[in-house]
Amino acid sequence: MKKHPLHIIKSAIVEDLKKHHAFLGALAEDALVYPPDTKFGDIALPCFAYAQSAGKNPAELARAIAESGVVASEWVSAVNAAGPYVNFVLKGDALARVLFAALKKPALFGTNDFGKGERVMIEYPSPNTHKEFHIGHVRNVCLGVALTHLYEASGFKMAQVDYTNDLGSHVAKCLWALMKFHKGEKPPRGREARWLGAVYAEGAQKLEAHPEYAPEVSEVLQKLESRDKVVHTLWKKTRAWSIKGMNDEVKDEGKKIVAELLKKGIAKKSQGAVIIDMEAQGFGIMLLLKSDGTGLYSTSDLALARKKFKLFKIDRSINITDVRQSLYFKQLFHALALSGFTQKMTHIGYEFVRLPEGAMASRTGRVILYEDMRDEIIEAAAEETKKRHPEWSARKIADTAHALALAGLKFGMLKYDPNKVIVFDKKEALSFEGFTGPYLLYTFARMNSLLKKTRSVARGLVDAALLADAHEKQLAIHAARLPEIVQSATENNNPSELAQYAYKLCQLFGGFYEHCPVLRAPNEDVGRARIALVQAAQSVLEQSLKLLGIPLIQEM
RNA sequence: GCGCUCGUCGUUCAAUGGAUAGGACGCAAGAUUGCGGAUCUUGCGAUGCAGGUUCGAUUCCUGCCGAGCGCACCA
Fold it and tell me: Which nucleotide has the shortest C1'-to-CA distance from A451?
């Protein structure tokens, strides 16, 4: 196990407690909690679970433990009982000491190794597969990005979903060969994809044999990227062929699997169609083949899943979709389990984003498209930025506004539990105050500005013991919790835990900033210690925002 | 009809069965020329209803009320 700053302190407390109190034999680190108010202490032990084996009621037990003497004196300055809780007050420098040490490598702080040795694949729709990209889809992408980062930070190896790059040079080669050697030809019906593959192979071979063709190919690529009319039209046509080809291939593969399932007696025929009866599991009926023998989504999914597990050798797979597909994924996972796949499969269903007037529906035109919303927020942010910084260049204002808008949208999507319906209020999306992305960026910018001004302060040994103010201690202990939060957010597939954490960090920094002057600290030593604390808080905030997929800006 | 999810201040969200139910928005009042007022401080203000389990329930169980979603040839 990697040792987090708080792990070091918690395990010292736990070990010492166990040494002195036999009835706490099974005590684990995660039994320690954080008091609701720091006036109680910094870390607490609830005594409910041990009361029975100790033969006392929880409050008596807490008192007995507290009175038995100070434990883990390297870190703890006082122990006191409050009702059924034993509260530990940490020494002023304890937290800051471990925190500063851990932050010597800020990029690693926040990581943990609970997923070590496991490969995971996270699937969520890629933005460019949707033409009508509305704010509901934004939620999906934000969750996907944040979870990918979280899983990485928790030590998982990510298997990348192979989103075919359909604007690359291989496509240009194919189009070039098509135009040069097969202009006007019609591919055989139903075998377009295969034919296209042959054309590509031919083109690649000829290009290798005749390097003088290279400029022609790069011209095609340029035209492709600049959306030249002729090339672009051809590209759209060929892409449709190859997608259809891929889909057909997958579907054929799926039908073979369905046949196997029938043979094994897992699936059966019913009303002419092929189904798996999952009534016993409470999942109803899963339809695998239509009565006319043609395939369905589920047919392809079986094949895709098999391919995924075999090819990428993953241990876990995660699908992020709209919550309405929950039942379908239960069925799919059950079907895969019946076919012998033991990998851990998780479906994360997120609730809708709805408008104050009701659900979004393209039928009634009640949709908010991502691009429109984004532009509107950018405009509001630009106006606000211009007001504050009239001297900034148009370019800088535009960049800042863009970052603010993205932060606002993304944070807005991630700050709530995925299984809660989000009521998307435009007024709220346009606000930059309170529990919002821009507030976090503002805090970051202030930290940055403050640290810039401290560059002239002479460096020297930092005496963490000088951080004795309640604001300083609270900020330090909260900052030190990042690794725990990252792990918990990963385990629960819930980035909102991290979002709430980051916001709380900013709130605590706000209090510290108000009460503990850094540039005009009582003396130089206190100033140096505070600078170190600000640096620590900034690293933690930076790390949190990066994990959430929110870009940072230095000033705003 | 069956199943899943959800009901917490005016609004919108928090709270491993545990300490005084916590934020944000809005509202009201305030922050000595001081590190960025997109900030900070203070106040007002809530667990749908009825039972049950428990030393203790916003949390678990049952019923009711209310909202949303899903339940075989669509994707």
Answer: B35
Q: Please give the residue range of the domain that contains residue A176.
A: 169-251
Which CATH number covers residue A47? 3.30.1360.70
Choose one of A90, A119, A151: the last residue of a domain. Answer: A90
- Supply the DSSP symbol for A484: H
Do the strands A119-123 and A157-158 form a parallel or antiparallel pair, or are they unpaired? parallel
Q: Which residue is nearest to nucleotide B17 (CA to C1')?
A: A48
Per-residue CB contacts under 7 A with strand B, chain A residues 186-205: none
Domain count, chain A: 2
Q: What is the largest CA-CA distance in chain A?
A: 92
A272 CB closer than 7 A to any strand B atom = yes
Domain limit, last residue, from A32, A67, A90: A90
A130 Cβ contacts chain B strand, under 7 Å: no
pLDDT at A37: 85
Regarding predicted confidence, which is higher, A13 or A195? A13
The tens digit of pLDDT for each residue in A251-309 reads 999 999 999 999 999 999 999 999 999 998 989 999 999 999 999 999 999 999 998 89
For residues A424 and A414, what is the distance between their CA atoms, to the nearest angstrom? Answer: 13
Percent of chain A with pLDDT over 70: 96
**Nearest 5 degrees, angle CA A138-CA A141-CA A142?**
80
Q: What is the pLDDT of residues A495-518, one digit of tens each?
A: 999 999 999 999 999 999 999 999
- Chain B bases closer than 7 angstroms to a protein Cβ: 3-6, 12-16, 18-20, 22-26, 34-36, 38-41, 55-56, 68-75
CA of A58 to C1' of B54 (A): 15
Order of strands, sheet of A316-322, starting from the edge strand that comes earlier in the sequence: A157-158, A119-123, A316-322, A344-350
Helices marked H in A154-185: 169-181
Cβ atoms within 10 Å of A47's Cβ, excluding its own: 25
What is the CA A416 to C1' B13 distance in angstroms? Answer: 7
Length of chain A as a residue count:
556
